[in-house]
């Protein structure tokens, strides 16, 4: 699993880079985003940045987590993939964040990433 994290991280960076085109539209042609239903441009920016940050995080964890159990790395990976995706529906309708389904998915993703990263730190500290 550890060897897979940098690869997933690179794909996350690639998606983040591609989402830069949406950022160009936010700045230069926001009316195009409105045509496809995107009302909240700030969420496009958040998605773009989060894809990049999560990609860097996955690469870093994959390179250093030599003594971390695979299940912990799965938690980190799930959180790092789901967190950026959670901004996408908010770009269309921010009221979605008030629904139980969204709040549950958001909470589980946050806990998955947070608990996973703490567990990585503990595992690596013990191994050190």
UniProtKB/TrEMBL annotation:
This is Hydroxylaminobenzene mutase. The chain crosses the membrane at residues 6-27, 48-65, 71-92, 104-127. Keywords: Membrane, Transmembrane, Transmembrane helix.
């Amino acid at each position: 699993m550890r060897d897979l994290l940098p690869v997933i991280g690179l794909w996350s960076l690639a998606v983040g880079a591609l989402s830069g085109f949406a950022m160009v539209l936010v700045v230069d042609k926001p009316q195009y985003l409105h045509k496809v239903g995107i009302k909240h441009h700030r969420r496009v920016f958040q998605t773009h940045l989060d894809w990049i940050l999560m990609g860097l995080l996955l690469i870093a964890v994959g390179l250093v987590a030599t003594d971390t159990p695979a299940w912990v790395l799965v938690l980190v990976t799930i959180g790092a993939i789901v967190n950026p995706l959670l901004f996408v529906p908010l770009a269309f309708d921010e009221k979605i964040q008030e629904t139980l389904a969204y709040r549950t998915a958001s909470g589980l993703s946050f806990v998955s990433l947070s608990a996973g990263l703490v567990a990585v730190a503990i595992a690596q500290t013990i191994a050190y």
